[in-house]
Structures are given as C-alpha cells and as structure tokens.
Task: structure prediction
Amino acid sequence: MAGNSGGVDSTYGGELGPAPAPPPPRRRGLTIRLRMTIAYGLAVFLTGAVLIYTAYTLFRWRLGHPNQNVAEPAGCPPAPRTPGYQAQVKYCNSIKDQQILSQIDTPLIIVLLISAVVALLIGYFLAGRFLRPINQITRTARRVANRPDRALHARIDMDGPQDDELVNLAQTFDGMLDRLDHAFEGQRRFVGNASHELRTPLAINRTLLEVTLMDPEASEQTRQLCRTLLSTNERSERMIEGLLLLAKADNEPTNREDIDLAEVAYRSVTQCEMEAAERHVAIRTSLQSANVSGDGILIERIAMNLIQNALRHNIGAGGWVDVLSYDRSHDLPGHGLLVVANTGPEVPPYAVETLFEPFKRGSQSAGAAAARDPKDKGVGLGLSIVRSVVRAHGGRVAAEPRPGGGLIVRVWLPVRV
Result:
C-alpha cells in the first residue's frame, strides 16, 4: 500500500549484509594423492637403487678380480700358431664369461627376492597408513548405521590440508550427519510439541462431555452421544500420549538403574489381568530374575505394551499369553531376555517387520483384516514404542510368527552399557 515515505528511515536495511562466517582454518600439508605419490615413488626408487648398486658392486669387483674363482676349461689357453687358434680363444673366453655370469646371477637373484619382500612390507605399511582415515570413516558410518538413534551425534572431525581428498570426504560425511541429526531432532521436537499442544483441547473436551453426562436434565440421546464422543476423545488422548512417549523413547535414558526384568514383567501381568479376564485369555508366566540397566518406567512400558498387544491380537476364549524372562548375564555380552508369545491369527513372515511401524496393525484373520474389535483400545503405536525404547537402551527386539498362529516377541536388554 502506497503512503507517505518522507518520515521513514531508509537505512534500516543497511547497505551490506552480515559478514559471512569465516571458514574454519585448514592445516597446511600435502594431500593424500601427493603423499601416496611420493611414498610409492620413493619405495620404487630405493628398491631400484639397491638392485643397481648391488649389480654395480659385483661387476666392479669382478673387473678387479677377473680370474678369481674361474677355472680354465680343458685345452685352454690354446697354443699359439695352432690351426683354429682364434676360434679356440673365443671358445675359452665364452666359457670364462659364462662362469663369471653364473657367479653374479645368484647374488643378484637373492637381492631381488629380498628387495621384493621388503617392497611388499613397505607397501603394506604405507597402505595401512593411507587407509587409516578411511577406516575411521567406515567405523563412524557403521556405528551410525547400527545405532542411528544414539550414534547420530558422532562425527569424524578429520583435520588435514584443504585439498585433501579424504578430508573432503570426511567433512562431507560430517555435513550429512549434521543434517540428519537436525532432521531427527526437529522431528522429535515437533512430535513432542504437537502432542503437548493437542492434549489441552482434548482435556477440555473430556471435561465438557463429563459435565454434560452429570447433568440430570440431559436427554438419553444426548448422553449416548456424549459417551460416543468420550470414547473417541479417549482414543485420541491415548494416541497423543503414545506419540509423546514415542518421541521421548528415541532419546537415550539418562537415569539408568538396575531393574529386575522379572519384577517388571510381574507388575505388567498384574495390571493386565482384568483385560485378560474380559477377553477370556489366560496369562501364563515363567519369570526368572534378571537384572538389566535402564529406565524403570520405560522398561515397564516395554512389558506392558507387549502383553497388551498379545491380549488384543488373540483368538479370544481359549487363547493364552506366555510371559517369560531369562537371565543371560553370563553370556557375552550379558543381557536379560524377555519373551512374550501368544495365540492369535496367523501372521505372514514378510509382514512381521511392518508390525513395528507406527499405526501399523496385524490382520485379525488370515488373508484379510476383520472388523475392528470394540474392546481394542490400541492406536497402533505399541510395538513402535517397544522398538524405540529397546534401541534407546542399547538392546534388540525381534519377532517371529508362532506355528499355528500368533507371535513370539523377544527383547534383549543389556546388563550394562
């Protein structure tokens, strides 16, 4: 919109933008290409110099001692003025030359073999020196690939000349890790902030619906509508809580303590007994005391989610859920093992890994998904939270279909990290 610009200071924008941040100083030195060229060039030069010097020394010694260790052939030297004298002299000289060359060949071959062995050792040593930065890059990449939730903050921080090829590769890799780290951190902050912001209006909705239900003048139709909305609101609240927990579970726990896996599993089983009775599913336990290191609340969430998932994806009456814990502290590395197995619909082997994805559900019947169980209060985040919490604790989780239907889930948690 046009207006009077006479009283506006036009210098607010400035004439020059902010000065760019100076690049970090680079150490002066030779690049990896020059160092490899010089090193291997020197190795070839020294090996050739040794061979040439050895040959030169042997020939020089032989020139000073032409007849030493040389036997006269039979009939040599020939008598002067005999028929074929010149031919006899040439024959005798050729025999002597062959003897001299045979004496020189042996030490030259020995020196050549020794030089080849030394050259191989020098090349092996130089290759190890030059490949050491690549090994460092490989170790960092493998650590990030194996544990992206914990090792994403790792950096190579390689120092060297500005034009060094390996330094440029390491800095490019560090830049990629910086972007991935910022992306993961931004995603976690977004999920956490969004979850916090969404909890407030859901809590207000729940309060208003509960107040309406307590109103004696409310009609039965209104009450039924409020109950339906309360059930929907409760499901949304559980989903928000799951998202918030999933965002927190990606971070490594800071308050680690020794946790008895059997005690955690027993508490979780006790809390799920009422739901198991409603679904007519038996919970069977075989709990062996196993101390693991981690956050007690998060580890209890692992057991609770696994048991609830096993109950909600079961066959109903006649079904069962087995909860077992084992002490594997004497193994290398030491760990505690939690196993939850259940009866239920058949799960194709190719679909097992997808069950750990957020909002992913297993089919309720073989071949196609059945109608949603009204008793199912899950939101599809249970196994995703389990995997995130286990990874944050430095453990491992794996699932496999159970013969006859159902699932077997194993969780390995370290004794110490």
